[in-house]
Structure formats: structure tokens, C-alpha cells
Design goal:
With about 170 residues, this protein is mainly α. It is built from five helices and no strands. The radius of gyration is 50 Å and the shape is elongated. Keywords: Cell cycle, Cell division, Membrane, Transmembrane, Transmembrane helix.
């Protein structure tokens, strides 16, 4: 076997360390150190490319799906609202099939009466001066009244029982 010996004299194309300029240490940010430490293999680049391609292909379909689900939810809400409207209108139609309800509405809305009935309309039965005195503030404290309500009720009943009959002028 041949013995290989190492020569003590090395030939290098680099300049010697004495002829180089001194280096100044520069602080690098942690982000730059992290970025230099990333090594991409062909497999990782292929997987990232497939991931981007998958997002590009699936994004329109997913947005269409979400939009359709929103439309379905809106239509279901509208269907529920329309069902409630149909129920309300059906109940109203059933009320209008009742003769008593029709007569009540005719009396209230059009002031219709049956033959032999007398209709009384009270229009502005209070004086405007009497309404102005009602604006007193309400207190939180309980107070006693000056008159006894039972005596006032009894006096009102007795005076109405003994009142003279009022005749209306015919005209």
C-alpha cells in the first residue's frame, strides 16, 4: 500500500488572514436569522403549490355555497313570515264570517243601529277649561281625600233616583 503523506505547505488561493480587512460584527434581527434558517425542499415547494392551487380552485365554489345557504336562510325566514300572515288573515276571515262581529263592526265604524234602537254619540263631553286643571303633578305619597267616596256615591244614586224626568224637545 502506498502511504499518502500530507504536505506541511498548503497552497491556498485565499489571501492570508493578515491581509484581510477586519470584520465589524453586525447585529441581525431575529426575523432575518429565522428567514435565513428556512430551507425549502422540492417536496415542500410542491405541497405549497398544491395548497395555493386548491385555494384558487375551491374559493369560488365555497363562496357560492355560502351565498346559497344565505339565500336559503332568507327564503325560510320569508316563508315563516308568510305563514304567519296567512294564519292572521285566515283568523280575520273567520271573524268576518261571524254575524255578531259584522254587526259590531257596523256599529263602531258606520254607526249603524237596528230598527227600534237609539244610538247616542257623545262628542266632546268635557269643557276645555276643565281639561286644563288635570295637568297637576302626581305625588309618590299617599294622601287622604277631603270627601268620603261612599257618601258621594250614595248621594249620586239618590239624586238620580229622585230626579225629574227630562223631556227632549221634538223637532
Amino acid at each position: 500500500m502506498a502511504k499518502i503523506t500530507k504536505s506541511t505547505q498548503t497552497t491556498s488561493k485565499r489571501p492570508s488572514s493578515a491581509s484581510r480587512e477586519p470584520r465589524v460584527p453586525v447585529s441581525t434581527s431575529t426575523g432575518a436569522v429565522w428567514l435565513r434558517g428556512i430551507r425549502f425542499s422540492g417536496f415542500s415547494l410542491l405541497m405549497m403549490g398544491l395548497l395555493v392551487l386548491g385555494v384558487v380552485v375551491l374559493a369560488p365554489n365555497i363562496s357560492a355555497f355560502v351565498e346559497q345557504r344565505q339565500q336559503i336562510a332568507d327564503l325560510n325566514a320569508q316563508l315563516t313570515e308568510d305563514g304567519d300572515t296567512v294564519d292572521r288573515l285566515t283568523a280575520e276571515r273567520e271573524r268576518w264570517n261571524d254575524k255578531t262581529f259584522i254587526m259590531t263592526q257596523a256599529r263602531e265604524r258606520f254607526f249603524y243601529v237596528k230598527p227600534g234602537e237609539v244610538s247616542f254619540l257623545v262628542i266632546n263631553d268635557l269643557d276645555a277649561a276643565a281639561l286644563a286643571d288635570v295637568d297637576e303633578p302626581v305625588s309618590d305619597e299617599l294622601t287622604t281625600t277631603d270627601t268620603d267616596w261612599t257618601e258621594a256615591l250614595l248621594a249620586s244614586l239618590l239624586s238620580s233616583a229622585y230626579a225629574e224626568e227630562v223631556t227632549t224637545p221634538e223637532g
